[in-house]
Amino acid sequence: MNFMTLKRFLIPNIFIAIILTALNIGGIDPIIEPKNDDTTNLTKYVQAQHNIIQNYYGYADLDIMYKTSIRYMVKGIKDSTLQIDGTPVDTTFPGIKVSSLRESYQNFESAYLYVSNNSPDENMTLLTERAIRGLFSTLDPHSVFIEAEDSEVDQENFAGKFQGIGVQFNVIDDTITVVTAIAGGPSDQLGIQSGDRIVQIDDTTAVGFTNEQVQSHLRGEKGTKVRVGIIRPGVSDMIYFTITRDDIPLYTVDTSYMLDDKTGYIKINRFAATTHDEFMQAMDELQETGMERLVLDLRGNPGGYLGQAVAIAEEFFPQGTELVATQSRHSRFNQEYYSRKDGVFKEKPVIVLVDEGAASASEIVSGALQDHDRALVVGRRTFGKGLVQQQYELIDKSMVRVTISKYTTPSGRVIQKPFTEGGGEEYAYEIYRRDNAMNDAVEFIDQVPDSLQYKTDAGRIVYGGGGIVPDYIIQPDTSRSGYMINFSLRKRASFEFIRDYLDAQGVEFRAEWEDNFEGFRTDFTWTAQEIEQFKASLIDKGMVITNDVSEPEFKNDSLFVPNGYFEEVAWMAEGRMKAELARQVWGLPYFYPVINDVFDTTLKEAMTLWDAYTRLESLASGKAMADDVTNLKKEG
Q: Residue 360 catalytic?
């Protein structure tokens, strides 16, 4: 019996596996277990392609998918002597035309076995995953394969929690430094605090751990215990804590606070399973402190769960208001979403902040509010992701994320920007090639065909095919002052400076400020000596002050700046360090008020636009004509 025949004898018949896999996908109890890597790999490929055909929102060409997957596989083969022409991995071979799933399965099995039999040292799991990525490269940029280890992290992020000890940390000089203990988590309850160095985990030294090693040692199932040894500045002996792991929330509301005596501010970083609950809690707390109007910040929010976007949007509308609709080749994914109740905040004035990083669920919320003339949308044109994905688990716990539908806003707009098959990188980086915010929006509007122009309830023109164009466009701050901040962040200079500052003066600082954040926010300032110390730390990290440059510029890993540049932008260093100090003492939600106070020109300008909101409100209520509202295309 030759090797090829033996291999075929050992591998379960692929068509039996297909049938059993189909039953499994269809909801029948699993009745096949992987016997070896070959079975797993072949089944994984089958499942991935099956999920595309059964769920993809548009037409997926089987022939193109199959041939592309084989080309991806071939590119990953390390054996340069393997014969390609005229073999099962030659997609140009006459007569190869895939027109059914059965033919695709047969051809892939033949290609797989040819490679594994003739190049026995190849990693067939990696080659199979390359082939699966080839399948997805023929679809839209948001349909992707996710490796098993990445899928676990991805699910944690959108589940809104993970299990562990509850600390945010950085590895500095090979040592785990606690940035902050997550409020209410097991570490916080035991008194672990910012600045603590974790040097031992159970009986193992933790010095030299990578981020991945830290997570693997500190995360674990709820109820399990881990013993850590901590060095705390000002304490001579190591402190030991036995921590019982628990559910640790991953908050999606970064911060909420009052901008003035009647304006609340909420920043949402993504739409996960807990987002609506977090949002409602934040709104309730703000209302208790006198909030009459809201700035909802969705900048940089890449999206997430459609249901969570709908749940938040409906809080701003009366019952029965259309919020979004989804359309697909498969009727089961076609759906219209309406507010199921009278929203708790349906009367409150709202300004929504967006930018090119706001996508998907963020665009659903801002699109619904704009189409119904319910909020003033302010900032920069959004990303333009109008497709909805669903995840499906494969046999080895890896996942495929398949686009199942496209969504339309209440006016009928499709927000999705153009893409080409296989052009994922160009698609993703399109936002970085946009001109300044005003030119980008004007150019986009000028190029939008009449077929992609829609009207809001009150008759204002809005545009499809490329994200949400704000009602008021605000330019980003692109001044040269950002060089030093970027350099400081890359070198973790602010974090390290604050860590050392708290090591030396933490007791005194906490005694004066810990119970008075608002006082800290308005009154705390750095001394001239401290600013000079920070400047010296930047020089130690590679900032070069020289007369040889007239503008800041990066050379290799150093930042070259002219004389006087640091003093010109020292206010930025002061602000960033102050925000970092707030984060390490009070936690992440307190970082943002300081950052916004110092740096956020968009937020400051948005706060001057409440009169424009009032005009929009009059238009929506029929008390004003469209011409009475500012021409938002040209002004802002």
A: yes
